[in-house]
Amino acid sequence: MAAVAVTAAGGLLSGCGYGASAEPAPAKQTEGASGAKLSADTVKIGYFPNLTHATALVGLQDGLFQKELGSTRIKSQFFNAGPAEIEALNAGSIDIGWIGPNSAINGYVKSHGTSLRVIGGAASGGVKLVVNPARISSLDDLRGKRLATPQLGGTQDVALLNYLAGRGYKVDAASGAGDVSVLRTENKVVPEAYKSGSIDGAWVPEPTASRLVTLGAKVLLDEKSLWPNGKFATTDIIVSQKFLTAHPDVVEAVLRGSLAANAFIKADPQKAKADANLRIKADTGNALPPAILDPAWAGIDFIDDPLAGTLRTGADHAVAAGLLDEPELSGIVDLTLLNKVLTAAGRPAVAGAGLGVE
C-alpha cells in the first residue's frame, strides 16, 4: 500500500485538489492592465488548476477579472492543496482565493475567526463515488472494501465518512480503519492505485472521477443525490479580512469578474470549457483529454451563491465524525459585496444562513 503513497494523516479539514501537494506554484504577474486603478496596485489571487475552480480559470484566461480591475494588476498563483493556500492567505502571499469549503472552515477556526471571510460561491457538485464494478456492484457491497478520499479531514473525506456512518458502517475517522477502509490518497495517485488494485473505489472530485471511469470504473453514487435540490458547495471564494477591510473596491471588482465568468460559462459552455482547459495546460503542462474533460465538466454547476447552509452542514458532519470540535462559525461569511454586485445586476441577494458578519 505504501507504493501508491496512501496518506494516512494530514491537516484536519484541509482542502483537496487534483494532484494535491504542499507546494504552491510560482506567482504570475498579469501584463497589459489598463484603465483606472483601484485602491490597490496589485491583487494576489489563488486557485487550483481544477475544473471545480473553472470560475477562476476562465476569469483569468479570458481577462474578465482584469477588465473589472482596470490598471490594478493581478498576481495569480495556483495551489494543489487547501492548507498551502490558507498558509499563503495568512502570510499575505495571496489576498483572494478559490478553495474548498472545509479548508475555509479550518482556516477560520484555526485563526479564531480572524483570518478570512467567505465572500462568494463558485461551484456546486462534481463529486462522485466511483468503484471497480468487478468488486462492487451496489451500495450494499461496501463492507470490507477499500475506498480512497483525497485527504484526511478534507471535504470529500468528511462526506464519505458521513455517508458510511449513515448506512451503519463503523469507521475510525483518524485511521480510516473499520467496516470499510478509508484510504487517504492524493488525487494524482488515485488512478494508479485503482489500476494496481490497491483501492476498490474512491470518493473524489472531478476530473479524478471521470479519469477513473476511463480506466473501467463506474459511478456508483453522485454526491448531488444526497443534498437538497442537488446543491452543495464544492468551491467558494475567500478573502483575507485585512485585505477586505483595506480594499473593498478591489474585492468588489473581483466579484464582478467572478459573476462575469460564471455568466460566460452558462452562455457559452463549450468555449468556457476549452478556455478552462487552456489555463490548466498553461499551469500544469497537460490539458485534459475530451474523454475526461467532457463528462467532468457536465457534472459541475457553476454558481455565485456560496451556499452557506451547506458550509454549516459540512462542519456538522466533521464534528460527528470526530474530526473537528464544535466550531464557532459566526462571521465566517460576508456577503455584503456579493449582494451589492448581484443587486446592481438586477439579481436577488443570497443568504448567509446565520453565518454572516453581524
UniProtKB/TrEMBL annotation:
Gene3D superfamilies named among the record's database cross-references = Periplasmic binding protein-like II
Q: Which InterPro entries match?
A: ABC_SsuA_sub-bd
Q: Where in the cell is it found?
A: Periplasm
Q: Which GO terms describe its molecular function?
A: ATPase-coupled transmembrane transporter activity
Q: Name one GO cellular component term.
A: membrane
SUPFAM superfamilies the UniProt entry points to: Periplasmic binding protein-like II (SSF53850)
Protein name listed in UniProt: Aliphatic sulfonate ABC transporter substrate-binding protein
